[in-house]
Sequence to fold (409 residues):
Amino acid sequence: MSIPAKPQLLVINAGSSSIKFALFNTAPIVTAVFEGEISGIGRPGSCFTVHGADSRDTLERRFAVADRVTAVNVLVDWLAARLEPASLAAIAHRVVHGGVHVATCEKIDGAMLGALYDCATADPEHLPQELHLIETLRRRYPDVTHIACFDSAFHAGMPAVASMMAIPHRYYDAGVRRFGYHGLSCAYLMRQLGSIIGPDAAAGKVILAHLGGGASVTAVQGGQSRDTTMGFSPAGGIAMGNRSGDIDPGLAWHCFRNEAMEPARFNHMLNHESGLLGVSGSSGDLRELMARAKADPRAAQAVDLFCYQARKAICAMAAAIKGVGTLVFTAGVGANSAEARERICEGLAHIGVRLDPARNAAGAALISADDSLVSVRIIHTDEQWMIAEEAHMLLRQDNGSNAGMEVHG
Fold:
């Protein structure tokens, strides 16, 4: 296959308080040139970091990034000085979700933007930021193809019993349902799992535990999502760093009646002041909380709550697919905290999970004991690479290429 004239893809992955970005070469396969992040947006310790093989792509700068608009301007200005538009095949944007009827990847046009603005109420913490970045980069790079890769697309085929909420049916008819998120991570993990254990084994009963600042647990069977803990918005499911996870809907009425709390304030509390941060009163970082759990009862309580809810969610996902053959841990906590994995798995013996303590402590790829009925694995996720690969596939389809896909390793 000949090398394309524009062999590079820029990936943009915007969160509620961070923007991740990466540049990839696409020929002969999708490989990273550099990766970066603006983190801590709106907090005193904002940081702009880039890592790459080239010295100009390795930097760390700490300065106040007051809000999302400032973060976008900082990023766009740096990219403009670093990238030649003529080198870009496309700019691929992670979009949290695009409603009920979305493909994995689609080219962005005016009609799609309008539809995305209509969806913004489902996730006011992420989608407005993503839309602002898309609009800004489309203005800065008007001649470059822009592509949306949807984080909810992996879960689009969930059965109705898993996606439906028990509210009046007219909402379901109008497209209100449990969308599920971390889908790009799930797609990457399943792709990697297939290359590790083979496609037939990966097509079995798999549970993916994406445990980080955002956390979700997903049940996969036959390579398809069957259920997941996140729901209508990424605030649903198990407790996370700053997000509450599922709550009793009566809490909204309680806060309104007793504190005259307005809806916007309630939403901010659930997304930014809750989860591990809310319980501990000090931090949303599980590893920080574990380090001081012995001296801080509230930190210990937050750790207990997180591990309990993750363990319970894994059991619920096993029930959804009537068993489990493989359990995968990923993301900041799942892939890097042996203590969290141990505490979560110590209550899963009844579904066949048994860890090997030495393998778990070493962070081995396979951490289950030899006699464990369930294979327990660590796979480091890479959402940016998955976005680049999906966008690259879309471009190749448009170009009529039938070249085989490469597996990231």
